[in-house]
Amino acid sequence: MQEITTADVLAADATVQIVDVRESAELATGMIANAVHIPSGSILDRSGELDKSRRVIAVCHAGGRSARVAAILTELGFNADTLGGGMSGWESEGLPMVQQ
What we know:
The protein is α/β, with parallel strands linked by helices.
């Protein structure tokens, strides 16, 4: 697991799985396009929804929760990274977001 930048996310190939681990109420500000919403507290129960053969990038508000989720997913056999600065950083850079 490593902490990656917004540029890394933008450069990632189309097979990457972006997992937004924020709580539902936090999604009002928007999400990264094509991200899947799995709240951090549900990751163990819902990890089967993810494809182990594809890279995972976990995203939260600032990077703390997503780092913990990426570590858990790595232990489960996923190739998982975390977005440093989270959606706060993504939004501050003016990068595109979609409403869920």
